[in-house]
Amino acid sequence: MSWWRKNWRWLLTLAVTAGGAFAVLQLYIYRKNAEASKLRAELALLRAGAKVQGLRADRTARKAELAHNTSERKAIEQELAVARRRAVATVKAVDGMSSDDIANEFRALGY
């Protein structure tokens, strides 16, 4: 009797165990990648929120100065709108949303 005929059960057990271990490893990697992508989205949202808060503070600090210079004020307001759009875009699709809708979504996110 050949070695293969004597030990086929052990080989089958070894193959099934290796396949199961591989499947478990793949599921673990998939789960960790999902958690990492969720954390990346949260980080992007926090960074966008911090950017908006910084721009708001800049606008408040320079309000008197900007009262005389409308072009600078418009530039800061536009930059603020773009930052809000990016923040909302990390959570929702913003294509076709008006700036009022984006502002409302931004407020709903807690900023």
Explain the overall architecture.
The chain has 111 residues and is mainly alpha-helical. The protein has one domain. The protein contains five helices and no strands. The protein has helices spanning 3-6, 8-61, 63-68, 70-89, 99-108. Helix 2 (8-61) packs antiparallel against helix 4 (70-89). The longest helix has 54 residues, at 8-61. The radius of gyration is 27 Å and the shape is rod-shaped. It starts with a helix and ends with a helix.
Task: Please write out the topology.
Blueprint: H1 3-6, H2 8-61, H3 63-68, H4 70-89, H5 99-108
Helix pairs in contact: 2-4, 4-5
Characteristics:
111 residues; mainly alpha
Q: How is this structure best summarized?
A:
With 111 residues, the protein is mainly α. Helices cover 85% and strands 0% of the residues. The N and C termini lie far apart (76 Å).
**Portion in helices:** over 70%
- Give the domain tally: 1
Number of helices: 5
* Topology order in helix (H) and strand (E) letters: HHHHH
Low-confidence stretches: none
Q: Overall 3D geometry?
A: rod-shaped
Secondary-structure-derived class: mainly alpha
Rg, Å, rounded: 27 Å
